[in-house]
Amino acid sequence: MTVVAQAENLVKPDGALSSVSAAGDDNNTLAVASTVSGALSFVAASLSVEERTSFSWTLQEMIDWCTYEGQECDMKGHFASFNDPTMGNCYTFNSINSTRDFKAIQAGEKGGLSMMMKVNQTQYASWTDVAGIRVFFHDKRELVYPESVSITVTPGTATSAVIARSETLRMGQPYGNCTNDKAVSSYYFTGPYMQEGCMRSCYQDNVQRVCGCMNPCYPIPLGKKACTLDSRKCVQKFDDDYGDSNTWNCNCPMPCNQVDYLAGASRTDFRKNPAQCLAEQNATLRNDCFELFQHNRILIHVYYANIITIKFEEEELYPIMKLLSDTGGNIGLLYGISVITVIEFAFTVVMVIYYGATNQTL
Protein backbone atom coordinates (compact mmCIF):
# COMPACT_ATOMS: atom_id res chain seq x y z
CA MET A 1 0.00 0.00 0.00
CA THR A 2 1.36 3.42 -0.94
CA VAL A 3 1.85 6.24 1.55
CA VAL A 4 -0.94 8.21 -0.11
CA ALA A 5 -3.36 5.28 0.25
CA GLN A 6 -2.42 4.87 3.91
CA ALA A 7 -3.02 8.58 4.51
CA GLU A 8 -6.41 8.37 2.77
CA ASN A 9 -7.43 5.50 5.04
CA LEU A 10 -6.50 7.52 8.12
CA VAL A 11 -8.72 10.49 7.20
CA LYS A 12 -11.76 8.43 6.18
CA PRO A 13 -14.92 8.90 8.34
CA ASP A 14 -14.03 5.78 10.33
CA GLY A 15 -10.28 6.40 10.23
CA ALA A 16 -7.98 7.27 13.13
CA LEU A 17 -7.65 10.89 11.90
CA SER A 18 -11.16 11.41 10.58
CA SER A 19 -11.36 14.89 12.13
CA VAL A 20 -8.56 16.08 9.82
CA SER A 21 -10.78 15.79 6.77
CA ALA A 22 -13.56 17.88 8.31
CA ALA A 23 -11.11 20.50 9.57
CA GLY A 24 -9.50 20.65 6.13
CA ASP A 25 -12.85 21.22 4.45
CA ASP A 26 -13.37 24.18 6.82
CA ASN A 27 -9.83 25.48 6.13
CA ASN A 28 -9.15 25.17 9.85
CA THR A 29 -5.38 24.77 9.61
CA LEU A 30 -4.92 25.09 13.37
CA ALA A 31 -7.19 22.12 14.02
CA VAL A 32 -5.38 20.08 11.36
CA ALA A 33 -2.00 20.92 12.86
CA SER A 34 -3.19 20.13 16.40
CA THR A 35 -4.66 16.77 15.38
CA VAL A 36 -1.61 15.68 13.40
CA SER A 37 0.81 16.81 16.14
CA GLY A 38 -1.20 14.97 18.79
CA ALA A 39 -1.18 11.81 16.70
CA LEU A 40 2.59 11.79 16.25
CA SER A 41 3.31 10.41 19.73
CA PHE A 42 1.03 7.44 19.00
CA VAL A 43 2.86 6.77 15.74
CA ALA A 44 6.27 7.21 17.39
CA ALA A 45 5.36 4.84 20.21
CA SER A 46 4.99 2.01 17.69
CA LEU A 47 8.62 2.45 16.61
CA SER A 48 11.71 1.18 18.38
CA VAL A 49 13.81 3.52 20.51
CA GLU A 50 16.60 3.32 17.93
CA GLU A 51 14.26 4.37 15.13
CA ARG A 52 12.81 7.25 17.12
CA THR A 53 16.26 8.44 18.15
CA SER A 54 17.43 8.54 14.54
CA PHE A 55 14.54 10.87 13.62
CA SER A 56 15.56 13.58 16.13
CA TRP A 57 18.61 15.82 16.32
CA THR A 58 21.77 14.72 18.06
CA LEU A 59 23.38 16.83 20.77
CA GLN A 60 26.02 18.07 18.34
CA GLU A 61 23.30 19.08 15.89
CA MET A 62 21.50 21.07 18.60
CA ILE A 63 24.33 22.85 20.44
CA ASP A 64 26.90 25.13 18.83
CA TRP A 65 28.80 25.82 22.07
CA CYS A 66 28.20 25.42 25.80
CA THR A 67 29.88 26.83 28.92
CA TYR A 68 29.31 26.60 32.68
CA GLU A 69 30.86 29.34 34.81
CA GLY A 70 32.81 30.30 31.69
CA GLN A 71 34.34 26.82 31.28
CA GLU A 72 33.61 24.73 28.22
CA CYS A 73 31.16 21.83 28.69
CA ASP A 74 32.06 18.24 28.01
CA MET A 75 29.38 17.18 25.53
CA LYS A 76 29.78 13.48 26.33
CA GLY A 77 30.38 13.59 30.09
CA HIS A 78 28.11 16.46 31.17
CA PHE A 79 24.99 15.52 29.19
CA ALA A 80 22.73 12.46 29.31
CA SER A 81 20.12 11.62 26.71
CA PHE A 82 16.83 9.78 26.47
CA ASN A 83 14.09 9.56 23.86
CA ASP A 84 10.43 10.29 24.52
CA PRO A 85 7.65 9.49 22.00
CA THR A 86 6.15 12.94 22.54
CA MET A 87 9.20 15.18 22.93
CA GLY A 88 11.77 13.29 20.83
CA ASN A 89 15.43 13.32 21.83
CA CYS A 90 15.98 15.04 25.19
CA TYR A 91 19.34 16.00 26.70
CA THR A 92 19.94 16.61 30.40
CA PHE A 93 22.79 18.77 31.65
CA ASN A 94 24.22 17.75 35.07
CA SER A 95 22.24 14.53 35.19
CA ILE A 96 22.62 11.85 37.85
CA ASN A 97 25.15 10.12 35.55
CA SER A 98 27.19 13.24 34.80
CA THR A 99 30.96 12.92 35.16
CA ARG A 100 30.85 16.08 37.29
CA ASP A 101 28.38 17.12 39.95
CA PHE A 102 27.86 20.81 39.19
CA LYS A 103 27.20 23.11 42.14
CA ALA A 104 26.06 26.71 42.04
CA ILE A 105 28.72 28.72 43.86
CA GLN A 106 27.80 32.16 42.57
CA ALA A 107 24.65 33.85 41.35
CA GLY A 108 24.20 35.69 38.09
CA GLU A 109 24.88 34.92 34.47
CA LYS A 110 28.59 34.28 34.95
CA GLY A 111 27.84 31.55 37.49
CA GLY A 112 25.43 29.61 35.32
CA LEU A 113 24.98 27.69 32.09
CA SER A 114 25.22 29.37 28.70
CA MET A 115 24.53 27.74 25.34
CA MET A 116 24.27 28.73 21.71
CA MET A 117 21.71 26.34 20.28
CA LYS A 118 20.97 25.50 16.67
CA VAL A 119 17.54 25.14 15.09
CA ASN A 120 17.34 24.10 11.46
CA GLN A 121 13.90 25.32 10.47
CA THR A 122 14.16 23.76 7.00
CA GLN A 123 13.77 20.36 8.66
CA TYR A 124 10.54 21.25 10.46
CA ALA A 125 7.30 19.59 9.40
CA SER A 126 4.87 21.77 7.47
CA TRP A 127 2.19 21.63 10.19
CA THR A 128 4.52 22.92 12.94
CA ASP A 129 3.23 26.17 14.45
CA VAL A 130 6.29 27.40 16.35
CA ALA A 131 10.00 26.74 15.91
CA GLY A 132 12.07 26.50 19.06
CA ILE A 133 13.38 24.36 21.89
CA ARG A 134 11.76 23.53 25.23
CA VAL A 135 14.02 23.89 28.25
CA PHE A 136 13.02 22.00 31.42
CA PHE A 137 14.14 22.70 34.98
CA HIS A 138 14.08 19.76 37.39
CA ASP A 139 15.94 17.83 40.04
CA LYS A 140 18.74 15.78 38.50
CA ARG A 141 17.14 12.54 39.72
CA GLU A 142 13.74 13.24 38.19
CA LEU A 143 12.40 12.27 34.78
CA VAL A 144 10.59 15.09 32.99
CA TYR A 145 7.24 14.75 31.28
CA PRO A 146 5.42 17.20 28.95
CA GLU A 147 3.80 19.12 31.84
CA SER A 148 7.04 19.64 33.80
CA VAL A 149 8.27 23.18 34.52
CA SER A 150 9.73 24.53 31.27
CA ILE A 151 10.07 27.48 28.95
CA THR A 152 10.13 27.63 25.15
CA VAL A 153 13.01 29.50 23.52
CA THR A 154 12.66 30.65 19.91
CA PRO A 155 15.21 31.38 17.15
CA GLY A 156 16.66 34.85 16.78
CA THR A 157 16.51 35.54 20.53
CA ALA A 158 18.74 35.64 23.58
CA THR A 159 16.89 34.26 26.61
CA SER A 160 17.84 34.54 30.27
CA ALA A 161 16.18 31.97 32.51
CA VAL A 162 16.43 32.89 36.19
CA ILE A 163 15.67 29.97 38.48
CA ALA A 164 15.03 29.58 42.19
CA ARG A 165 15.18 26.39 44.22
CA SER A 166 12.93 25.51 47.14
CA GLU A 167 12.82 22.44 49.36
CA THR A 168 9.85 21.20 51.38
CA LEU A 169 10.18 18.73 54.28
CA ARG A 170 6.90 17.26 55.51
CA MET A 171 6.23 15.14 58.57
CA GLY A 172 4.70 11.72 58.14
CA GLN A 173 2.42 9.78 60.44
CA PRO A 174 0.92 10.56 62.89
CA TYR A 175 1.15 14.22 61.88
CA GLY A 176 0.35 13.94 58.20
CA ASN A 177 0.11 11.68 55.16
CA CYS A 178 3.31 11.72 53.09
CA THR A 179 5.79 9.22 51.75
CA ASN A 180 9.40 9.08 50.56
CA ASP A 181 9.21 5.72 48.81
CA LYS A 182 7.17 4.38 45.93
CA ALA A 183 5.04 2.07 48.05
CA VAL A 184 1.90 3.03 46.12
CA SER A 185 -0.28 0.91 43.87
CA SER A 186 1.58 1.98 40.69
CA TYR A 187 4.64 4.10 39.96
CA TYR A 188 6.28 4.08 36.51
CA PHE A 189 8.60 7.10 36.73
CA THR A 190 12.31 6.93 37.53
CA GLY A 191 13.96 9.01 40.23
CA PRO A 192 12.50 10.06 43.59
CA TYR A 193 8.82 9.79 44.38
CA MET A 194 6.62 12.60 43.00
CA GLN A 195 2.91 13.00 43.55
CA GLU A 196 2.45 13.91 39.89
CA GLY A 197 4.33 10.76 38.87
CA CYS A 198 2.01 8.69 41.05
CA MET A 199 -1.07 10.36 39.55
CA ARG A 200 0.17 9.82 35.99
CA SER A 201 0.93 6.17 36.76
CA CYS A 202 -2.57 5.75 38.16
CA TYR A 203 -3.91 7.45 35.02
CA GLN A 204 -2.04 4.92 32.88
CA ASP A 205 -3.63 2.06 34.82
CA ASN A 206 -7.07 3.50 34.15
CA VAL A 207 -6.36 3.96 30.44
CA GLN A 208 -5.13 0.36 30.36
CA ARG A 209 -8.35 -0.80 31.98
CA VAL A 210 -10.55 1.04 29.46
CA CYS A 211 -8.52 0.87 26.23
CA GLY A 212 -6.26 -2.14 26.75
CA CYS A 213 -3.13 -0.04 26.24
CA MET A 214 -1.36 2.97 27.78
CA ASN A 215 -0.94 6.57 26.66
CA PRO A 216 2.50 6.92 24.97
CA CYS A 217 2.87 10.44 26.36
CA TYR A 218 3.86 8.99 29.76
CA PRO A 219 6.14 6.16 30.96
CA ILE A 220 4.94 2.62 30.33
CA PRO A 221 6.08 -0.36 32.44
CA LEU A 222 7.57 -3.52 30.99
CA GLY A 223 4.95 -5.96 29.82
CA LYS A 224 2.45 -3.26 28.85
CA LYS A 225 1.97 -1.87 25.36
CA ALA A 226 1.60 1.70 24.17
CA CYS A 227 -1.59 2.74 22.41
CA THR A 228 -1.25 2.93 18.64
CA LEU A 229 -2.92 5.36 16.30
CA ASP A 230 -5.93 3.03 16.05
CA SER A 231 -6.45 3.33 19.82
CA ARG A 232 -6.06 7.11 19.93
CA LYS A 233 -9.81 7.77 19.82
CA CYS A 234 -10.28 5.55 22.88
CA VAL A 235 -7.63 7.53 24.80
CA GLN A 236 -9.24 10.81 23.75
CA LYS A 237 -12.65 9.58 24.86
CA PHE A 238 -11.21 8.51 28.20
CA ASP A 239 -9.65 11.96 28.66
CA ASP A 240 -12.97 13.60 27.83
CA ASP A 241 -15.10 11.34 30.04
CA TYR A 242 -12.68 10.91 32.96
CA GLY A 243 -10.58 14.07 32.84
CA ASP A 244 -11.24 14.64 36.54
CA SER A 245 -8.55 12.78 38.51
CA ASN A 246 -11.04 12.21 41.33
CA THR A 247 -12.61 9.51 39.14
CA TRP A 248 -9.35 7.53 38.87
CA ASN A 249 -9.47 6.12 42.42
CA CYS A 250 -5.82 6.97 43.12
CA ASN A 251 -3.99 7.02 46.44
CA CYS A 252 -1.10 9.41 45.92
CA PRO A 253 0.16 11.17 49.06
CA MET A 254 2.48 14.15 48.97
CA PRO A 255 6.25 13.43 49.08
CA CYS A 256 7.88 13.95 52.47
CA ASN A 257 10.94 15.50 50.80
CA GLN A 258 10.20 17.64 47.76
CA VAL A 259 12.46 19.86 45.64
CA ASP A 260 10.85 22.44 43.34
CA TYR A 261 12.26 24.86 40.78
CA LEU A 262 10.65 28.09 39.72
CA ALA A 263 11.76 29.78 36.51
CA GLY A 264 11.29 33.24 35.11
CA ALA A 265 12.50 34.18 31.64
CA SER A 266 13.35 37.40 29.84
CA ARG A 267 13.87 37.47 26.10
CA THR A 268 15.52 39.92 23.72
CA ASP A 269 16.06 39.76 19.97
CA PHE A 270 19.52 39.26 18.55
CA ARG A 271 21.29 42.31 17.26
CA LYS A 272 20.56 42.91 13.60
CA ASN A 273 24.29 42.85 12.95
CA PRO A 274 26.00 40.26 15.19
CA ALA A 275 29.72 40.80 15.66
CA GLN A 276 30.49 37.36 14.22
CA CYS A 277 28.80 38.31 10.97
CA LEU A 278 30.38 41.75 10.66
CA ALA A 279 33.79 40.10 10.56
CA GLU A 280 32.92 38.49 7.23
CA GLN A 281 34.40 40.40 4.30
CA ASN A 282 32.28 38.71 1.65
CA ALA A 283 28.84 40.35 1.43
CA THR A 284 27.08 37.10 0.55
CA LEU A 285 28.62 35.23 3.46
CA ARG A 286 27.82 38.14 5.76
CA ASN A 287 24.15 38.12 4.71
CA ASP A 288 24.01 34.34 5.14
CA CYS A 289 25.41 34.79 8.64
CA PHE A 290 22.74 37.38 9.47
CA GLU A 291 20.06 35.01 8.17
CA LEU A 292 21.51 32.15 10.20
CA PHE A 293 21.32 34.07 13.48
CA GLN A 294 17.84 35.41 12.84
CA HIS A 295 16.25 32.05 11.96
CA ASN A 296 18.44 29.25 13.27
CA ARG A 297 20.27 30.31 16.42
CA ILE A 298 19.17 30.59 20.06
CA LEU A 299 21.28 31.97 22.90
CA ILE A 300 20.21 30.91 26.38
CA HIS A 301 21.57 31.66 29.84
CA VAL A 302 20.37 29.69 32.88
CA TYR A 303 21.39 30.88 36.34
CA TYR A 304 20.26 31.53 39.90
CA ALA A 305 19.19 34.99 40.96
CA ASN A 306 20.81 34.03 44.29
CA ILE A 307 22.22 30.78 45.62
CA ILE A 308 19.94 30.73 48.66
CA THR A 309 17.57 27.77 48.82
CA ILE A 310 14.18 28.45 50.39
CA LYS A 311 13.42 25.64 52.84
CA PHE A 312 10.00 24.87 54.28
CA GLU A 313 10.05 22.36 57.13
CA GLU A 314 7.19 21.06 59.23
CA GLU A 315 7.86 20.77 62.96
CA GLU A 316 5.88 19.62 65.97
CA LEU A 317 4.13 22.60 67.47
CA TYR A 318 3.58 20.73 70.74
CA PRO A 319 5.84 17.62 71.04
CA ILE A 320 4.36 14.51 72.64
CA MET A 321 6.99 14.42 75.41
CA LYS A 322 6.18 17.97 76.40
CA LEU A 323 2.50 17.08 76.42
CA LEU A 324 3.14 14.12 78.76
CA SER A 325 5.37 16.22 81.00
CA ASP A 326 2.83 19.04 81.26
CA THR A 327 -0.02 16.59 81.83
CA GLY A 328 1.86 14.86 84.66
CA GLY A 329 2.74 18.18 86.25
CA ASN A 330 -0.82 19.43 86.09
CA ILE A 331 -2.20 16.19 87.54
CA GLY A 332 0.35 16.34 90.34
CA LEU A 333 -0.51 19.94 91.07
CA LEU A 334 -4.25 19.30 91.12
CA TYR A 335 -3.85 16.11 93.16
CA GLY A 336 -1.67 17.88 95.71
CA ILE A 337 -4.21 20.67 96.20
CA SER A 338 -7.03 18.16 96.69
CA VAL A 339 -5.22 16.15 99.43
CA ILE A 340 -4.21 19.24 101.34
CA THR A 341 -7.76 20.56 101.16
CA VAL A 342 -9.22 17.29 102.49
CA ILE A 343 -6.71 17.17 105.37
CA GLU A 344 -7.35 20.77 106.33
CA PHE A 345 -11.11 20.28 106.18
CA ALA A 346 -10.92 17.09 108.32
CA PHE A 347 -8.67 18.83 110.83
CA THR A 348 -11.15 21.72 111.07
CA VAL A 349 -14.04 19.30 111.70
CA VAL A 350 -12.06 17.52 114.44
CA MET A 351 -11.24 20.86 116.07
CA VAL A 352 -14.90 21.90 116.08
CA ILE A 353 -16.03 18.58 117.56
CA TYR A 354 -13.35 18.60 120.21
CA TYR A 355 -14.07 22.19 121.18
CA GLY A 356 -17.80 21.42 121.48
CA ALA A 357 -17.19 18.39 123.67
CA THR A 358 -14.48 19.78 125.95
CA ASN A 359 -14.85 23.51 125.54
CA GLN A 360 -11.10 23.51 124.93
CA THR A 361 -8.98 24.04 121.88
CA LEU A 362 -6.42 21.59 120.61
Plain-language structure description:
With 362 residues, this protein is α/β, with parallel strands linked by helices. The protein has three domains: 1-45, no CATH class; 47-313, Acid-sensing ion channels like fold (Sandwich), CATH 2.60.470; 321-362, no CATH class. Helix content is 35%, strand content 21%. It contains ten helices and 13 strands. It has helices spanning 3-10, 18-25, 29-45, 49-55, 59-62, 195-211, 232-241, 275-278, 283-296, 320-358, and strands spanning 63-68, 71-72, 79-84, 88-93, 113-118, 133-136, 150-153, 157-169, 178-179, 254-255, 257-269, 297-304, 310-313. The strands form four sheets. Strands 1, 2, 5, 8, 11, 12 and 13 form a seven-stranded mixed β-sheet that branches. A two-stranded antiparallel sheet has the order 3-4. Strands 6-7 form a two-stranded antiparallel ribbon. A hairpin with a 2-residue loop joins strand 1 (63-68) and strand 2. Helix 2 runs antiparallel to helix 3 (29-45). It is elongated. It starts with a helix and ends with a helix. Mean pLDDT is 81; it is low at 1-8.
Amino- and carboxy-terminal Cα gap: 123 Å
Task: Say what the CATH topology of the largest domain is.
Answer: Acid-sensing ion channels like fold
As a percent range, the share of strand residues is 15-25%
Radius of gyration: 33 Å
Please work out how many helical segments DSSP would assign.
10
Q: Determine the structural class based on helices, strands and strand pairing.
A: alpha/beta
- How many domains? The number is 3
Low-confidence parts lasting 5 or more residues at pLDDT below 50? 1-8
CATH structural class of the largest domain: Mainly Beta
